[in-house]
């Protein structure tokens, strides 16, 4: 399955919307998107996972790597709107206590184009 990643940035914050499956085959694409995004230097990144059907350990490692890089710069990386299967993975692995997990994308990040 294809992985789609779209990013919107505004006022030092970025919303990364992911659609598809994050696994061994698609994780490198996500990794390169995070590398590109973090060069822009946002202080906060929220990952909208409402479109993610599946995420394996490779995908979780990509998220952890991005979180580590953000924390090294004094920033934050949060997870929003994970589907039940992804939320269960976060809970089973204990990563729900590592990431801040929101039930929905925070309202302040739901910016419209041109604002």
> End-to-end distance, in Å?
33 Å
Order of helices and strands: EEHEHEHE
Radius of gyration, Cα only, in angstroms? Answer: 13 Å
Mean pLDDT: 91
Short description:
With 115 residues, the chain is α/β, with parallel strands linked by helices. 34% of the residues lie in helices and 32% in strands.
If you had to describe this structure to a student in words, what would you say it looks like?
By secondary structure, this protein is α/β, with parallel strands linked by helices. The protein has one domain: STAS domain (Transcription Regulator spoIIAA). Helices cover 34% and strands 32% of the residues. It is built from three helices and five strands. Strands 1-2-3-4-5 form a five-stranded mixed β-sheet, with helices on both faces. The longest helix is centred in the middle third of the chain and has 16 residues. InterPro entries: Anti-sigma_ant, STAS_dom, STAS_dom_sf.
Features of the shown structure:
single chain, 115 residues, alpha/beta, Transcription Regulator spoIIAA, 34% helix, 32% strand
């Amino acid at each position: 399955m294809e992985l789609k990643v779209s990013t919107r940035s505004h006022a030092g914050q970025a919303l990364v919307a992911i659609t598809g499956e994050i696994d061994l085959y698609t994780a490198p694409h996500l990794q390169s998107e995070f590398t590109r995004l973090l060069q822009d230097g946002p202080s906060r990144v929220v990952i909208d996972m409402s479109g993610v059907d599946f995420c394996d350990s490779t995908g979780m490692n990509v998220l952890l790597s991005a979180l580590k890089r953000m924390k090294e710069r004094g920033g934050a990386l949060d997870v929003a709107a994970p589907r039940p299967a992804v939320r269960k993975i976060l809970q089973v692995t204990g990563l729900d206590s590592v990431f801040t997990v929101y039930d929905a994308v925070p309202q302040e990040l739901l910016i419209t184009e041109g604002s």
